[in-house]
Amino acid sequence: MLLSLLRRQQCAAWLTKTKQLLAGGCSTPPARSPSSSSSRACWSSSTPARSSSSTSHKQASAMSPAPAVQHPHLVFWERTPPFAAYATAKLAACSLDVRSEVKGTKDTLHLAFSSGERLMGLPLILRYIVRAGTCGLSSGLYASDALSSTQVDFWLDYVCQNVVPGSGLEAVLQSINDYLTFRSFLVGHATTAADVALWGQLQGNPLWKKLKTSGKYPHLSRWFDYYAELPECKTAAEELVAMDSKKQKEAAAAAAQAVAAANAAPGTFVKKATADAGGSFDVGLPNAEMGKVVTRFPPEPSGFLHIGHAKAALLNQHFAEMYKGCLLVRFDDTNPSKEKDEYVDNIIKDVKDLGLTFEKVTYTSDYFPQLLDMGERLIKAGVLYADDTPVEQMREERLNRVESKCRGRSVAENLAAWEEMKKGSETGVNHALRFKFDMKSVNGCLRDPVAFRCNPTHHWRTGLKFKVYPTYDFACPFVDAYEGVTHALRTSEYKDREDQYYWVLKEMQKVWPGLPHVNMWDYSRLNFVNTVLSKRKLTWFVDTGRVDGWADPRMPTVQGILRRGLRIEALKEFILQQGASRNVTFQEWDKIWSINKRLIDPVCPRHTAVENRARVPVRLTNGPSETEVVVIPRHKKYEPAGKKALLRSSQIWLDQNDAKELHDGEEFTLMDWGNAIVKSITKDPSGVVTSMDVALHLEGDVKKTKWKLTWLAQSDELVDLCLLDFDYLVTKKKIEEEDDFMALVNPHTRFETAAQGDTNMRTLQKGDVLQLERKGYFIVDEPLTKPGKPMVLFNIPDGRTKNMTAPKQSGA
């Protein structure tokens, strides 16, 4: 790993620099070359010299939240625009004045304060901007934990010191390119100041523009293209380039200087909701104020997150970032009958895998005391009443708009029943608290919905402390407002509940002074063909053993599709393409898998496998007398994939389906070897090929052969494989309400094929992605761990081909 390599190379220098900083000195990070000085970072002052203790205090201040200083000046040499600092200021909503100097050097860059003090060097400037911005720290630019923040520090120093013009640049870029092979960010799963620093160094490096087109750095190029289009980075680059008069035509020099001067006027850098912000999620929220938006992602811990939840999570994060606000993750744990700590742990894992940057994790159960208090206040206000009507009768009455016989109970009667409910007594458990809204409403959600019900089940967090629990309809408006959520996002299927939400919140605000307003905003649910996203139905698949748990690759859960081989980057890109539309559609799975293929194909290594069933022994009449070993690339177009050993012998294996296509005298190509000519074919009475003799014809033209076939040398070193493919859990594309669900359950969804792979596959580890040439893409689910047990590979759909193994051997 790159971090480990760099740690070994720079550990001593890093410790020295840190000690000097903390001791009050100013140290330059270990340089790649003597000429590299872009990373120098220290305080300077135009005021008279102070004692060493004062200086030390000032340097320590650079590592803690900066004091409120009005509009520090970002000063730079016009030939080296501060792309990273300018973009970070936009991301962190940090107010700066910007000034370029015609006469200067690459060391001119500094932040000048009205006190006369200066911050020198990009790393220290970026640290200040993140801390000084109105939402810099809350946005995750400095990560969310101590370890990740330390990694951000490492990358800030490393990037600013090493990603500079010079003879060693290409080696540095190659290391970073390798590090980004399966990463979208330098640290964690979201943008940090480290990413912006790297983008800025590359953006301002003329050599990078040439190297980028060479094709040598595909992952770094992919990463760079993303940040080049990030609204803050894109705008920063455009504005800074416009300031550089030397890049303007001579005739427009004066005008360009005037524009630059105007742009450098005092002001704040605040991200605007432009057409570039967030792709097709680019819509505005009602009553949204920059820097004050708070959204929440409220999963119920009654199962794992599925792909629909992923859209909700990423959409909430998008708006929080768009308005420089924050995101809360809140577990709606109000139903102890369904909830487990196992689900909480896995949802937190999924949230982190999705790269969500959130302010904190909370639980509705954190507010049970306040919710019970609110319940009592609403009883006293005449808004809630206790009802002991049987559930089925209550449901029927609501459907027919019939008021309950208990609706006219007095406040005293309702309070007495409420006390019994809180005790969980025999009388109490037969009651529910209901809102007294409008039983005649055409909106069924307003017909006196239930607010509290008894449940004696052990709660996974609070145990048996509570016997009565709020419904989602009661808890959600209160906790949203209580936590300061400004915008609550819901799928459009719950549109009818918006009136209920606002009604409940309004009644609560009457009895709880200061409870703020919450804005509702709806978007379309993410649906897929041949897929159920109902948690109840998914639980049924798990409980009945039709799948092997929530992370089964047939499940549409986040863990299931990632285990199947989907990359997080592909999932995010797909959801971004869906945007915030309110149009309800059913998506084809091939779209998301096509995106995934585009990400994995350029980098995954190539291997070879031959199926065991009816494989054909082939004798090369003029083949090598002894087994030969030839070293070839694992990926001909991606050198970092490494090398592999190719065994050649006079006895090889071919797949039965390939052998059937050949005829006597036909010339074909053995991939990675050369051409061969069929001399004889032996078949059994049913037409199955049982053996072949061929002769190598290496001088033949591989471009002229019809068949390019994969093969394996017969060897005891071949790796036993179990290739698994999967089908949809249900047979109908779009399931309707009136459908008999059980009749649509697919009885055969797992397909297994025994095969052998090349000897290089022995080193593959769980989660490795590869291509079995001419068979498809696979992910290692179970590596080789025990003698006699095969390596298990899951077929990764590519959005184009049909199931590789499904037609061959069926399983569960």
From TrEMBL:
Keyword Aminoacyl-tRNA synthetase: yes
Key words of the record: Aminoacyl-tRNA synthetase, ATP-binding, Cytoplasm, Ligase, Nucleotide-binding, Phosphoprotein, Protein biosynthesis
InterPro entries: aa-tRNA-synth_I_CS, Gln/Glu-tRNA_Ligase, Glu-tRNA-synth_arc/euk, Glu/Gln-tRNA-synth, Glu/Gln-tRNA-synth_Ib_cat-dom, Glu/Gln-tRNA-synth_Ib_codon-bd, Glu_tRNA_lig_a-bdl, Glutathione-S-Trfase_C-like
Chain ranges of the GST C-terminal domain: 123-253
Bias-annotated ranges (Low complexity): 26-64
Major location (coarse): cytoplasm
One of the record's GO molecular function terms: glutamate-tRNA ligase activity
EC code(s) of this entry: 6.1.1.17
Reaction equation(s) it catalyzes: tRNA(Glu) + L-glutamate + ATP = L-glutamyl-tRNA(Glu) + AMP + diphosphate
Region (Disordered): 25-64
Compartment list: Cytoplasm
Biological process annotations from GO: glutamyl-tRNA aminoacylation; post-embryonic development; reproductive structure development
Any GO CC annotation of this UniProt entry: cytosol
UniProt keyword Cytoplasm present: yes
Database matches in PROSITE patterns: AA_TRNA_LIGASE_I, GST_CTER
Assigned protein family: Belongs to the class-I aminoacyl-tRNA synthetase family. Glutamate--tRNA ligase type 2 subfamily.
HAMAP family xrefs: Glu_tRNA_synth_type2
The protein's name: glutamate--tRNA ligase
Organism: Dunaliella tertiolecta
Lineage: Eukaryota, Viridiplantae, Chlorophyta, core chlorophytes, Chlorophyceae
